[in-house]
Design brief:
alpha+beta; 14 helices; five-stranded antiparallel β-sheet; 15 strands
């Protein structure tokens, strides 16, 4: 014992400690205390009264200590105990792992002390389980941290490769500071800068007549546009006009603008290319194409439509109602207008097209609702299907079910009489055809009867038969 030169502990001033007090002092000074004889037998077990994690260890007394040590720590104890019996008290603490009935284990750090006579030793131990649990938590936290770092490095590598190899000019701008957080070589080249000069700089300084606040506000307003807004700017260095398409997102608690930059000439080229291709398809397409107003007035047609109706000039068609060229007139026109306006498009509608000479041609029409600068338009593609009817066997020319499984029997409504359609089908199909005709004509019974090739009286009979009379009133 080191007393710093004080003789209090060696002068006999300290009285002998009563046995009942000694055990409590030892228990308070350690978590667990063992008195071990020279033969390695546990003579006494003293536990700290504040520690309940050990349970009751009275069954250890009178039994060899090695019975309660794990296999790998038995040699450690035997070596230290032998040194103690040889007169050398181990100076370093000894960590032993206890095991009781192979059910649970716990580590304890012991210090050796001489105790009484007959070479008995006192082992004062500290429970290492809290330390072990803390160490385990630290190890798990370290592993999770390393995994997070690894995932971040992987994502960063992917981001760098993607940014370097994309053809689009990309710039990331902080909304708060207006500075460029990151960019790629394509963006730097488009702005006439080096990549290092672009990164970290104020984005607005690379454009003419725009302050940081004004440019940031313009970009944020563009992100609110439903159709993908854009901002036209003039590059300060290169002097060319560029178009910036921003997208805002939040990362690390900060808002960031992802800006895709393209030269004004490139954007115009892309737009012109698409427009030219669409115009070329409209002019040279094999199917007839018609654009009409929401009231059915024809605004433009292609050459194929002129061939179908036998018109010599556009002036013979433009300005007229499309109903003039439909077999059922206003009935067909109403279907081609109402259905696209309700659902946006109508895939297939079978009818007949007529010209000024009265020639009838079987066609299929698909219609789409369009908007052109606020004006409501309907675009129709008309396909000649008369050759398909000519190839069908006589007697079932219109009632034959189509070979393609994707065709729906309701597509035939309007192209043939109901009697022919249901000749090879069931009552279910008949009911579906009647429901479709009534729906397409807006519950106009006269128009539906004409579309199905029935008399009005016959239609009412079938409506009553299938319970559709009161349903559609």
């Amino acid at each position: 014992m080191t007393t710093g030169g004080n003789t209090f502990w060696s002068s006999g001033s300290v009285p002998l400690i009563e046995p009942e007090f000694l055990s409590s002092i030892i228990g308070a000074a350690s978590d667990i205390a063992l008195v071990v004889s020279a033969e390695g037998i546990i003579l006494s077990v003293v536990l700290n009264t504040h520690s309940e994690s050990f349970g009751n260890l009275k069954h250890w007394e009178g039994r060899p200590i090695v019975q309660f040590l794990t296999r790998e720590t038995v040699p450690k104890f035997e070596a230290a105990h032998a040194a103690y019996l040889g007169g050398e008290v181990p100076r370093k603490p000894l960590e032993l792992n206890h095991s009781d009935n192979a059910v649970w284990q716990y580590p304890v750090r012991y210090t050796f002390h001489r105790f009484g006579h007959e070479n008995a030793c006192l082992l004062l131990g500290r429970d290492l389980r809290p330390i072990a649990e803390t160490q385990q938590q630290l190890v798990q936290a370290q592993i999770a941290l390393e995994q997070g770092y690894e995932a971040r490095r992987e994502f960063d590598a992917r981001f760098r490769v993607l940014l370097a190899n994309t053809d689009d000019a990309i710039v990331f701008v902080s909304v708060q500071s207006g500075r460029v957080d990151d960019a790629n070589e394509a963006a730097a080249g488009l702005l006439g800068l080096k990549l290092d000069a672009l990164r970290g700089s104020t984005f607005a300084q690379h454009f003419s007549d725009r302050s940081t606040v004004e440019l940031t506000e313009s970009l944020m307003n563009a992100t609110l546009s439903e159709e993908g807004g854009r901002v036209t700017l003039k590059a300060q260095k290169s002097g060319q006009s560029v178009i910036v398409r921003p997208v805002v997102f939040r990362a690390g608690g900060q808002r960031v603008l992802l800006c895709r930059i393209a030269s004004d000439e490139e954007a115009a080229t892309i737009t012109d290319t698409v427009a030219n291709q669409a115009l070329a398809l409209f002019r040279a397409g094999s199917d007839a194409m018609v654009f009409m107003t929401g009231k059915g007035v024809i605004t433009s047609v292609n050459e194929s439509f002129l061939d179908v109706v036998g018109a010599a000039h556009l002036s013979d068609v433009v300005g007229r109602s499309l109903s003039d060229f439909l077999a059922r007139g206003q009935i067909d026109l109403g279907v081609l207008i109402d259905q696209p306006q309700r659902s946006g498009q109508m895939r297939v509608y079978a009818t007949k097209l007529i010209n000024d000479l009265g020639t009838r041609l079987s066609v299929e029409v698909s219609a789409t609702h369009l908007e052109d600068q606020g004006a409501q338009l309907i675009g129709c593609i008309i396909r000649d299907v008369s050759h398909m009817e000519a190839s069908r066997p006589q007697g079932v020319a219109t009632a034959q079910m189509p070979a393609e499984p994707s065709r729906n029997v309701m597509d035939l409504v309007g192209s043939a009489s109901l009697k022919d359609i249901v000749a090879e089908t069931t009552d279910v199909v008949e009911k579906m055809c009647i429901e479709t005709a009534v729906e397409l004509t807006g519950n106009n019974r006269v128009a539906a009867a004409e579309m199905l090739g029935l008399s009005r009286q016959s239609l009412y009979v079938k409506l009553r038969k299938y319970g559709l009379l009161s349903k559609n009133n």
